Amino acid sequence: MAGKMSLCIIKYTYTRYVGVDIEKYTRGIYEYVKEAFGELQPQMSEPGTIPDMPDYLDVVLIKKDGSNFLEMDIVRRAINIPRDFQMEGLVLEINITNCDGTKYQKKHHYHP
């Protein structure tokens, strides 16, 4: 199994945020993800680094040891962001491709 890796991409996107400090919301999710997925060393787009595009956060998780991501574990952690950052219009997308060839996709819409 040497050389095989599993990939997980998590994307949080705010689709409606008129009149809201969206960078504050994105920063909150960023801090949550750093803690929730810390042992997996998440690679993330830094909120506010892309001008005019502070409305999303991309997270990439990679396992290079030949093991798989457990879908339920990833979903549980990804969905359970603090309620303070769960605005209507927030969409979560999860795409997992495991080294054994299994694939998983989930889309979740938040509603207050």
Could you provide a short overview of the structure?
By secondary structure, the protein is an alpha+beta fold. Helices cover 21% and strands 30% of the residues. It is built from 2 helices and 5 strands; from the N terminus they run βαββαββ.
Structural key phrases:
alpha+beta; 5-stranded antiparallel sheet; 112 residues; single chain
Per-chain topology:
Blueprint: E1 6-14, H1 22-36, E2 43-44, E3 56-63, H2 71-79, E4 90-97, E5 103-109
Antiparallel strand pairs: 1-3, 1-4, 2-3, 4-5
Residue windows where pLDDT falls under 50 for at least 5 positions: none
SS class: alpha+beta
Indicate the mean pLDDT. Answer: 88
Strand content: 25-35%
Rg, Cα atoms, Å:
14 Å
Strand order of the largest sheet: 2-3-1-4-5
> What can be said about the biggest beta sheet?
5 strands, antiparallel
H/E order of the elements?
EHEEHEE
Number of helices: 2
Helix content: 10-25%
Per the principal axes of the C-alpha atoms, what is the gross shape? Answer: elongated
Give the N-terminus to C-terminus distance in angstroms: 44 Å
Secondary structure: number of strands = 5
Describe this structure as you would to a colleague.
This protein is an alpha+beta fold and 112 residues long. The chain has two helices and five strands; from the N terminus they run βαββαββ. A five-stranded antiparallel β-sheet has the order 2-3-1-4-5, with helices on one face.
